[in-house]
Specification:
- The protein has 230 residues and is mostly helical.
- The protein is built from 9 helices and no strands.
- Helix 5 crosses helix 8.
- The longest helix has 27 residues.
Length: 230
Amino acid sequence: MNVHSKSEADKDDKRRQIFDAALDLFWEGGFHAAPMAKLAQHAGIPVGTIYRHFESKEELIHALYTDIKARRIEATLAGYDPALSLRQRFDRLWRNGMEYCVTHPLEFRFAEQYAHSPYLRDAAKSIQSEIAEDLVHFYAEGYREGIFKTLPPEIITSLISGPMNALAARAISGACKIDEARIQEVITPAGTPSPAEPDPPPPHSRRNLTCNMPNSAIPASSFPVSASAP
């Protein structure tokens, strides 16, 4: 590793250290309860080090959100195969998205805080409005086949992520625990034979959990399954 590469790696490591400390403090008391001095103390670094990476707490919050958003998109698209049917690709995206949420509770909670805060209004400093290219093609195929109404991808994404986030929040809080059978019930329309399953996530990353709520109380994904669905 040359000097430049080592310097960049050190910079990335320091940013990650700051992000991790911020996630802890934001989880405990929200954005306003984490001044830069307290954040530096929690990270075990001088406060000046934080300011060498971020000019303000607002810039730090935007950068953290951007980082989490990119990681969630990457995780959601893991194993995505355009050659699979639309239904199989939906299953993969839904499973991956839910898996990321419930296995990254700090990141999930932060993104929810950000989404309901004034910070989201500053679209120029976030990637909220960006849609991954694979998802754009996925939606376009759904439009052509008459499965999706011709809503903008941003709206369809919101219709999907809203119910998913609500279910993930309940799972993280312990109000609802989900297992593979329950996931299959949520994503498969009644009376529809299950398609060939994509490869499941690695065993170490999955949770063997059970949900005690009745089917009618489980928020289903808003991804359309018929031509009349939104």
